[in-house]
Amino acid sequence: MYELVLKNGTIIDVKERKLIKGDLAVSKGKIAGIGSFSGEQEVDCSGKYLCPGFIDAHVHIESSMATPLEFARAVMPHGTTTVIADPHELVNVKGNEAMKYILDATENIPLSVYVMMPSSIPATPFETNGADFTAEDMKQWKDHERVLGLGEVMCYPAVLAGDPEIFDKLRLCQGMVIDGHAPGLTGKDLETYVKAGVMTDHECTSYEEAEEKCHAGMKILVREGSAARNAGDIIPGLLGKPEDISNYMFCTDDKHLDTIANEGHISYNVKRSIQLGMNPVDAVAMATYHAASAYGLDQIGVLKKGKDADIVVLDSLEDVSVDQVYRKGRRVGAAMFEMEAAPVEESMLHTVVLSDVSADKIQVKASGKVPVIGMVSGQIVTEFLREEVPSENGLFVPNEEYSKLCVFERHRGTGNAKAAPLKGYGITGGAIATSVAHDSHNIIAAGDNDEDILVAVKMMEKMQGGYVLVSDGEVKGTLPLPVAGLLSMESSEEIQKNIDDMLKKAWDMGISKEIDPFITLSFMALPVIPELRLTDQGLVDVTNFQFI
């Protein structure tokens, strides 16, 4: 007699692409067999579907703003049992200390967390980050049992140029998985990038881009996050090329707690793909078997004898409605998370160091047509615009159409601060600031007046990172993120409650409800996504990889 038997279910064989009626037996955390069994505990799954636990093939846990334990509490009820985490955000702030933190904090939590070593710290030479993370640093982590390889190689221009620093990292990780990040890369440059050892990409925004990268030898991660949503652009094209589906899988990349609560996690990628016309079994395979195969995770991804009993029970296959989740045969529930989160080193709690925050540093000359960052609805890409903006005495003055975007360096006390017009954000009557500013995580702020922007930025230092809303010189809302200026130490429920309150207040300040005010703002300093970004050192033309 087995410990657990899930009775009378429809088992999804993601490897053979077929459905099997029967029982699934579990013993000692492993799948003991598929057939007809009796168990000490029997769960009737009549009318339900059983599939492997979902795998997020690329995620920055930091984007949830929760500690790994609280992140697990948020995603596991939606069927995610394994994630492949790239702690790029934390490591940009605190280097080896952050790498140690993420491995320690994920050691004994219910969610299975594998880790990629961040490759691009900082991602470009156009910004100031908090710490270095070299090939020499990586050596101490390379052989850790949960370290799978090299995180997304965002500095693809450095790869194309043969930069020795990135090639030291690529050589170190030969034989491991090497993740990519190369939006829009094509032709011979793409071939060079792949020949350097890069194996995946999650930045495709069209099927044509995904197809070219797939045929160049890359595995494609179809992303559905909070800000970047690409399934609608990729899946319809993929349906006409069923022979390529085995090279595709799912990721979230960056997904906030509120989005997870409202729509699910990897379960949403599956549901969205089915809505777009994909065969449900293929969609489930992308969320499980394909990811496990790509990352060499042999014990998960399929419901076969001897594999880990990571199981999702679905009420409906088409709607991907999750009824029950099992992790190594143990049902996921509140009791599973009754443990203390890993302790945080004191140095990880003091990472915001500002110098000389003043209005004169964020003035923008406005003579004729000037560079403007144009937001693109539903995407994290931006447009490089040149437009005449409102001005007084030759200086840009924000209004409803053009907000003032500012970045203040917060790691090394350099006093760097830059500003630029931002079109499409729409904030009026105040300012928003955050220490979540991909990927170097300086302080980024946007507002319609300098006074509120400066109040918000100074509040950042007082609370050592987080989110701030300011109007008429008064702080109207805060979400402290004291762990490296990126993570809260509160429960996921408390974080979500605070975020909901902050979102309502932000939307009341004129920002469209089609925009997540915080996530969108956090990407405006990311100088590896086209076309125009602002860092603490200035405006960056990402397409030509140079300052303006």
Question: How would you characterize this protein structure?
Answer:
The protein has 15 helices and 29 strands. It is an alpha/beta fold and 548 residues long. Strands 1, 2, 3, 4, 5, 14, 15 and 16 form an eight-stranded mixed sheet that branches. An eight-stranded mixed sheet has the order 18-17-22-21-24-23-25-26, sandwiched between helices. It has a five-stranded parallel sheet with strand order 6-7-8-9-10. Helix 7 crosses helix 8 (231-238). The protein is globular and about 80 Å long. The termini are far apart.
β-sheet strand percentage: 25-35%
> Helical amount among residues, as a percent range?
25-40%
- The separation of the N and C termini measures 70 Å
Average pLDDT reading: 96
The radius of gyration over CA amounts to 23 Å
Poorly predicted regions are none
Q: Count all strands and give the number.
A: 29
Task: Supply the helix-strand structural class.
Answer: alpha/beta
Largest sheet: 8 strands, mixed
With helices defined by DSSP (H or I, 4 residues minimum), what is the helix count?
15
Overall spatial form: globular
